[in-house]
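Hey, can you fold this one?
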Amino acid sequence: MRILAIGAHPDDIEIGCGGTLVLYNRKGHEVYMLVLTKGEASGDPKAREKECEEAAKILGAKKLLFGDLQDTRITDGIETIMAIENVINELKPDLIFAHSYKDGHQDHRNAGMASLSAARNSKKIFLYESPAALREFCPQVFVDVCSAFDVKLKALEMFGSQAEKVYFRGNDRHDASVHQLPYVSNAVEGLARYRGFQAGALLAEAFEVGKFLLEI
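Sure. Predicted structure:
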């Protein structure tokens, strides 16, 4: 199976569905990542591109693609739709992961809407959450990522340029977390534990259903 994950910025995919992608890679499926910008509003774009490349290797992605859109200025219009649709037409993925449009960050929200438009002919689309997700985000699908969580955190460790962001910044409560990798705060694990509690697992990633064709 061929899987495409779409993110607005470097680190979005890793946060939202990194563990799930690791599990698919372990099963022998092809994982592709499309990052629409190079995150230039939050650091040097070349450095952020390099961080994203290193993280993609850790997740096991077969190929990392960039959409060359402008950070903080992604729209849900034709430019974004075509940037995504061209990749979908090239790869013909069986399963797509994209941003939920129920998100407070305009890039995430618009990327999510554009992804649904671009993937209108696709059969399976799941929408992941970000740290800016709104309370309206209501997942129906959960993935137990306990066995892949250390790899997810190692991928996130690559984003050293984002260390000061609240969802990366660590704290001194070393007894509060099993994982103590640099730049990764307890927030990442805390969210996974919360979603795991909802799903009946220790650690989970959560998704809304954009579309799911059940083939019997």
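Residues 12-26 form the longest helix (15 residues). Let me know if you want another pass with a different chain boundary.
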